[in-house]
Amino acid sequence: MSLRLLLFVLATMMGISFGWAQEAAPKPDRSATGGAQTLEDIMARQRGEAVDNGFRSGATGDPDSAAGLAQQLGTLGGASDPELWRALRFGSANITATNNGPAATTLIQDGGMRWLQFREGPLLTYGGYLLLGTIVLLAVFFLIRGRIRIDGEKTGLTIERFKPVERFGHWLLAGSFILLGITGLITLFGRKFLIPAFGHETFAFLAVGSKWIHNNVSWAFMLALVMVFVFWVVHNLPSRTDINWLLKGGGIFTKGHPPAKKFNAGQKLIFWSVIILGASISASGLALLFPFELNMFAATFAKLNDFGISAALGMGELRTTLAPHEEMQYAQLWHAIVSFVLMAIILAHIYIGSVGMEGAYDAMGTGEVELQWAREHHSIWAAEEEARNAAQGSGNRATTPAE
Amino acid sequence: MKSMLSAFLAIAVIAVGSNLILGQAGFSSQERGSGPAVRLD
Known about the structure:
The structure holds two protein chains of two kinds. Chain A is 59% helix and 2% strand. Chain A is mainly alpha-helical. Chain A has two domains: 2-89, no CATH class; 111-401, Fumarate Reductase Cytochrome B subunit. Chain A has a three-stranded antiparallel sheet. By secondary structure, chain B is mainly α. Chain B has helices at residues 2-24, 29-33. The A-B interface holds A 98-101, 104, 164-165, 167-172, 174-176, 179, 212-213, 215-220, 223-224, 290-293, 364-367 and B 1-4, 6-8, 10-11, 14-16, 18-19, 22, 27, 29, 32-35, 37-38.
């Protein structure tokens, strides 16, 4: 604090103006208030306009010009009460607190208001519409396309698609994700929808339960994410067949199926979405599980500035000094935004793996799929499996009559 | 089906287990936020 103040005083004495003073925008006339904020500043802020606080964030007093201790006002140490409050408001006051933790000395942080408004505004609205829109689109798709049937004659034979441990990993991920999704939505939609609908007491019960489930089930999700990555990454590396598959739209709207290996390009997209978005959700989730311990956003913003990404996206220079609470607020928003995207993707995945396609569920249910289904949807993989089974002779484990 | 049910069981076991472990890991807000000069209970 004292060093910053000293620099400020030195810079002012040497006539060096700070960045905010160099902006080309015309300076508001504050002579009537002696440089303090004017009615126009207050009104602009109330209209929700961006107000440059530079003119007052640094005006936090000057210990060097303090009156002597024995004089009147000497005990104030060169800072008036408004200047002290300004230092608190802009986070530059030298605060000592008896409680510990990185956030203990942040007494006022106005980033919280922006976070609250975004969280209960755009985040909730667009997030909700994204999920509802996805469900509606899937319903429309089902009405138009119907269930994707197995075209050919069923053979009555099955081949193993997923081993028990792979299915275990899948369901560990799926079960935990659904629990985390539902409890996360309860937490986000509580104040706006659930409290008005069910009252405070019911929601308090729901919220405490949701928090417990969300915090503790998260570990199962993270473990399962690592498991499925290890199991399936080899089969999800891009290959030439993916281009053809994508060009033909996966055969969703046409007769016949483009050839595919164990996973087609659509499944690969789902896989990498789950891995990348899931890892991002896990990282921001860990930051939320251990508050103030894992601060990632100031560093990320600095990187985005350095690489010119924020400028390219029209966001200008992002702030790289964040209050501890702001780190948590950004972590929460990022956590929720990425989760909404992944939830929408997973809704489509659940649809196509259950009602959307005949024979698909068996892959994760029993692990055994109808041979004809495999030949149609994963022709290259099915041919390889059949060749391998034939080489091993009849009566092998992989080809068994369907029940 | 067995894989699915055992995975769901594992979720419950992991959740209860992590709750026990995290409670003792010293990362509760109470432990992180208090010090010798603060008595919370």
